[in-house]
Amino acid sequence: MQALAGWQKSEGHRKNSLSKNAIHFGMAQAVDYYVMVLGKSGC
Questions:
Q1: Which of 13, 21, 24, 28 fits a disulfide with 40 by CB distance 3.0 to 4.6 angstroms?
Q2: Which pLDDT tens digit goes with each residue over 14-41?
Q3: Within 10 Å of residue 27's Cβ, how many Cβ atoms?
Q4: Does the pTM exceed 0.85?
């Protein structure tokens, strides 16, 4: 998935996706739009 590779090249996106606090996640694609939602316990 090109979006995921792009997010990993972004310092901010990479930091958030690798955070130990991010224990819940969701990803979706609609045509050429991509979204990733990260969550932590208690949110």
A1: 21
A2: 999 999 999 999 999 999 999 999 999 8
A3: 13
A4: no
